[in-house]
Each structure stands twice: as structure tokens, then as C-alpha cells.
């Protein structure tokens, strides 16, 4: 399942464009996610309109890795799903 590093994501939509399973979407940062950002992360978020990628359909992920290759910030990693 994809996990997005909130301090790295710049909402450039590369993950949205390459994912054949529609796992990602770009949307406004959730308040809890915004509160957890570092100072640099908050500045980046502000510059990019407080929008980031979210894995809204993480269960649809097939771990193909296309999003990892496409993300210019290397903000996505794949982790095993906990049972």
C-alpha cells in the first residue's frame, strides 16, 4: 500500500497521472496532516496551495511501482498491508 511523505509531497500530480488503478488524488491537506508537518513541510505546502496527493483508494494498489518512479520528490513508498 502506498504511503505519502507529507513533508516531501508537492502535489505535482505525477502519481495521479501514472497510476492505472486510480489510487491517488490531489486534494487539500487535512488539518491533522498539516499540523504534523515540519517547518519546511509547512512552507512547501503553502507554496503549493496546501494541496497534496492522497492515496484515497489504497486498497486498489497493485504495488506496480509506477508512482514511485513518477514522483519527482520521492514522496511515496510502498509498505506491506497489515493483516
- Biggest sheet character: 2 strands, antiparallel
Helical content stands at: 25-40%
Low-pLDDT residue intervals, each spanning 5 or more residues? none
Question: What's the SSE pattern?
Answer: EHEHHEHE
Shape: globular
Q: What's the pLDDT, averaged over the residues?
A: 95
Map the helices and strands.
Elements: E1 2-4, H1 14-18, E2 24-28, H2 31-35, H3 39-47, E3 51-55, H4 66-70, E4 76-78
Antiparallel strand pairs: 1-4, 2-3
Short description:
This protein is α+β, with helices and mostly antiparallel strands. The chain has four helices and four strands; from the N terminus they run βαβααβαβ. The strands form two sheets. The chain has a two-stranded antiparallel ribbon. A two-stranded antiparallel ribbon has the order 2-3.
Describe the structure.
This protein is an alpha+beta fold and 83 residues long. The longest helix has 9 residues, at 39-47. The chain has helices at 14-18, 31-35, 39-47, 66-70, and strands at residues 2-4, 24-28, 51-55, 76-78.
Amino acid at each position: 500500500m502506498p504511503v505519502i511523505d507529507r513533508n516531501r509531497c508537492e502535489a505535482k500530480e505525477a502519481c495521479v497521472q501514472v497510476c492505472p488503478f486510480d489510487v491517488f488524488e490531489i486534494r487539500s491537506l487535512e488539518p491533522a496532516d498539516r499540523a504534523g508537518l515540519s517547518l519546511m513541510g509547512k512552507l512547501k505546502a503553502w507554496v503549493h496551495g496546501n494541496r497534496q496527493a492522497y492515496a484515497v483508494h489504497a486498497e486498489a494498489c497493485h504495488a506496480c511501482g509506477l508512482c514511485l518512479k513518477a514522483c519527482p520528490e520521492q514522496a511515496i513508498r510502498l509498505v506491506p498491508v497489515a493483516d
